[in-house]
Write a structure and sequence with these properties.
8 copies of one chain form a homooctamer.
Chain A lengths: L8 H5 L4 E3 L5 H14 L3 E4 L3 H6 L2 H4 L2 E4 L4 E4 L10 E5 L5 H13 L4 E4 L7 H12 L3 E6 L4 H7 L6 E5 L11 H8 L6 E3 L5 H12 L1 H5 L2
Parallel strand pairs in A: 1-2, 5-6, 5-7, 7-8, 8-9
Antiparallel strand pairs in A: 2-4, 3-4
Chain lengths: ~220, ~220, ~220, ~220, ~220, ~220, ~220, ~220
């Protein structure tokens, strides 16, 4: 194989070096990891299913910090975390894998995050109990599946930008996450923006960009 | 024309005699009205656009109580209203035509209703200010377009059944009302039920059925 | 894990404490069950696949009443059942799992139900033979896949509210249940309301709300 | 213009010479009519809106038998009708334009038809009152919009083939006729076949083919 | 279990007793087969996957004539076949399972069929070589996936009614059979009718109805 | 206004300078035309509705060669046409506006074209009569709406590349051209390529590119 | 009418007071304007079509600064603009109305903006000529219809967050803006976020939130 | 089995003999291979999954050159390759299987190809480094998933025809390849044509046709 990694991305856009693993073979992943090691580069791997991680051979796996819940792996070790200026708010327990993908992406870039979970709007008091914690952050990442009502409720309660991450949690009309996605885009609360379904990584990248060059330099 | 009206519907199902006017010609509507007058029957007309009402000839229009906002007309006069046991809750000003179609259908059957408007979740305090009024009712009809987050928030706050009426208010992904409809169906708040987009009439019929035979007998 | 269960839901909305299991890990489910046991709370688990039930460890499974057909489990034992005021009507044998999820949810709350099965409209005489049994109930839950014609036929025959539960039974254009769902929403019989595809639990919750506070208090 | 009419179609397939007018200009229609007159051919025009008919010049309109309800026109005069062996069953008043397109197409080919209207399943007794009339026919064309439950109910009641014509009558999820179409295709009653939405002409053509060569020879 | 089979269907509609197996458990299927044997009824089983057939216990399987290609089984033995008056035309090798489901359904009812395979329109000469064989039949069942162009080409070449059976063969925009289905419904050749995707059984039922009562009496 | 026209496009890609007019105001179009005149550039305008053409003021319209059928206008006069090496094949009369947009775009670049119309596959003999004319060309542009079966039939008959242009002609499932588009993409005849619905201009551009630099130099 | 304006929104979320006019009647708009004047509040009106503006009576229109291109009106006069820290980048001339809605919303809140137009990726040199101007901004709003390739190209070139605003410019598969929207959400360039189709207002609100409280305080 | 292979396709259309394996059984494939061997014909097999290849028996597999990445097999050995006149450009590593299907199809017909990989537009410099190599070719096949922005960028940079092959790489709104497909069809760069999702074979066939009879004669 003869691939061309976009090594200048970090310099150009301030974002972490990352590889989407879902449609890549073990051989391809091993080559990418070897190339990163050869350059001494840190690397974030996303959508690396437990079975795919297990299928990597020993040299490829060495030194990878793998988290099965979020299906992410980090090559090159941790960095010190900044104080948390980003809230990651998850509607339900089932949304935690995506929320955690965002948290791990932020940590890869040195950003701490405040995780607020189980605050779905069907029991509004849970969200209200945590709202001041959320308001203290400069960016809010909201993670929700099913009907995604959390996005609008949050959007109306905080001054920070709200990045909606619809998840594929749900069944019937909610299957695949389209219902939550359309709720994010059609939100009656102005200032809510959306990323693709289950895209915790992308939401974290957007949050990093919103914090600005200083924040990204910390990564 | 030689149509067969379902005159026994009221007896069989307890629902009002009603005619959906949108795809019927002036001639067809005039014949239906004449047949109702000949039987001395009261009749509710829905989706009667102002232009279609104006196109009816004088005999057809005589004695019709027409409301352009809800596009409904009543033949046969008003009946006394019961105390309001049904709340009709509308998210925004643009949802009022559909909300009013529900209110007028209930009134046709003798049921008073409590209309609560402009309580969209982007400004949650407005809903919370009115929530006790809503909780006092036995059935709640919730009317909302765009992302329809109101349905889930209400469903989590009240013990009464919540009938969601998605409206076609919105643009882009919300155009036509599909986004609000999927929010109603995918709601994380159990016990929310849905009717078709913009179907204020159907929601009112369902509410009448929920109040039970006594209520319908009052119509 | 550190989740926030909505323990006040029953008090606020009258509905059973329930957990949707489909996207939760064994670990997450075990923690939820332990928390419920610690509070002495009864709990209903839905969409718990046989494999997921089998994957629970012994302490988690102890005392769970599991039903593989409906994929539901009950923690905390049975309660006495009221006389049946709710009919659960299923079009075909394949719709029974969803119908049974509704019956089990009602039973969890102390409500008996009348199950009427195999009354699809292709053989209309079967429904007509049972129609008086159905008419005797105060709420009707109708469960059907494929084209969902049962919803409209029932809606025209009974005075009780009809809650349509479309099922994902079918193939081709009916795959996933969208055909049955649109039939429910577009029904020519006014007063039919719909819940999400395969959502027997939600239909039961709505039925409980329709019976009113007294019924819910019995749960 | 220099078009190539398929004059041999009748000989090859037994179907009437027909022109779909909706996307053709007045000039194009006038040329087609002139060519038919030059050959002494009879011709059926479908989807000829009143405004498009009015826009034809005098020579083009001469001798056209135009029916605004069904938006059809016949060039070349009537033929004697056979006894009715085809039933055209319409669910509601709003479905009559499509039903009438079928009846007019059959008449153009010399086939009488039995029109049965206003027999939607929300008031099932209306259909049952007419069912023997329908059973006496060799082919049934069923015309319905909204949720199209009529197709399955009819399919389970008659031995003749049922050709379902979904109509674009309805709003919300039923808008455009997709809901009725999927009901026809997903019908639990075997032996129901479907044509395109609002395609009364195509249903009549299929019915003619089902009656067989003798019937078509009468056209 | 306590199911209500529609034993009067054959008498009422002339169609074979049949059971759609795809969403039924082994237990349910065994009970249905036992009930049929108890009545001495013949029975056709469709969509019985090889694994589901293998999962039936010995008593349930005894005397079943199972065909894995079409996934059909017959209980009650063969009947003598009439001369073939129905052509079953399949575009490609991959469409044969569905074509064979139609052929087996016809045979169950005593109707012979002429199977014409591998005549996709990309090599039109293959169809033209067989066209006279097809024209000799009174009904044509056309089976095709991908873009389904065969339906229109056949519809323009034969006088018999053409029943289009779209198949789920294809990928990308053709995945699931929607592309072939819309081609059938939108066909420029009048007189083509459609059944659901992969519904060889339904097409055969429609063909039986088209041949009329005499043919069905032979089954 | 201060727009930046891509004047180097012709040099870079060999394609004509063209402006899509549908969403531009009269003022914007007038400024674009003035800029082109100032440079002495030839310009092709597409999707210029008759009303939009009429709304242009006198200076803007001067010297425009406008064709209402194809809704195209040419600024800068005609060029000599090459011998026709491209066939433009239209299924029906209603497809002529799109076919003509392709012919006019080719003519703007100096390429003659052979227009073959009214050869829809429902009457296959019409296409077979013209097939040798089509086979003599180096590129084939096929224009069809409804089910678009023409694309596959042509693709199987000619050695030249076939560029499918689905049109928005049709109703019901064919409305908007999606049915014809999926037929083009799912074609069982390899080597068929597709452009957007109604995009005669794009098909002509692709054909110019296929003829190669020499052809484009003639424009 | 008796509506409840969310007057505390600005304090709570930092966003401008705004009214979406598209589904409101002249009477409703007049009442809203009167209420704002009574409070001395500034107000932004969006989606106010020229015909709707013309339909307002004199008192309602007085003092409104109306811009027909962006269909926005401002009540309460201009405020001084900050230096431009937000770039609004439009792919084509047809995207200018949406781009301008964003610029006007920013101006209402006192934020200057840098408008960069006609930089669609089909002529990449145009974007590259302006890229340094864009890179100098802290937030980028990208406005594009058709296939929306601009979003990914920009996302890969700048360090600032990119808010994608898909527009409804396009036809065929691009009609209504869904193609551009999916391009924004599926972007291979991480850190791109999206708002609803044609939602220039929402993009501006998100940009204001990203600049942070200081910026919003200037509004 | 008794299938009719289209052996004259090569002569008629210049394209390779090929078999789509995905929905065929091992038995069917073995028969097709035996028939080809009996005629001494070369044959290309596409979409032959590794498991399906492994399931072939020894005689069927003998002499097959199988490539698991592209899931293609060649019967009949290699032919000498022409100089590369076709560029196959792949956006990412995950798109290589489809790109390689195209390269292998071209090689089967004797055409060399220039493979350019990892040039997605998020890092535009990678594409610009290779653009002259691509410009040197007479046809460009572009392979991309996710949002497919590569198609438009390439279309604006090269004079050769660009055949877009959308791939099913992506998740959420990009799942299945529809997002990339609509980008190809809606491209703002004229002259881009599209084939079905993942259809590397079809793109290669179209490229062969574009090179013309001479090129195909080399196969």
């Amino acid at each position: 194989m003869d691939f061309t990694f976009d090594w200048s991305r970090a310099a150009r856009t301030g974002l972490p070096e990352a590889v989407l693993c879902s449609a890549k073979s073990s051989t391809q992943l091993a080559e990418i990891l070897a190339a990163a090691r050869a350059r001494g580069a840190r690397l974030l791997l996303t959508r690396l299913e437990p079975a795919a991680f297990a299928a990597l051979d020993e040299p490829a796996r060495t030194g990878l910090d793998y988290d099965p819940l979020s299906r992410t792996a980090v090559l090159g070790g941790e960095v010190a975390l900044s104080e948390a200026r980003i809230a990651v708010v998850a509607a339900g327990t089932s949304d935690l894998p995506v929320a955690r993908e965002a948290v791990r992406t932020l940590a890869f870039s040195g950003q701490g995050a405040r995780l607020v979970a189980d605050v779905g709007v069907a029991g509004l008091w849970r969200l209200m109990e945590r709202i001041e914690d959320i308001r203290a952050c400069r960016v809010v990442i909201a993670v929700a599946g099913m009907e995604g009502a959390l996005f609008s409720v949050l959007g109306g309660l905080v001054a920070a930008p709200v990045i909606a991450v619809p998840t594929s949690i749900g069944y019937g009309v909610a299957e695949g996450g389209k219902a939550a996605l359309t709720s994010a885009l059609a939100s009656c609360a102005p200032g809510v923006v959306a990323v693709n379904i289950d895209n915790g990584f992308g939401a974290a990248c957007a949050a990093l960009k919103m914090l600005g060059p200083a924040a990204m330099g910390e990564g």
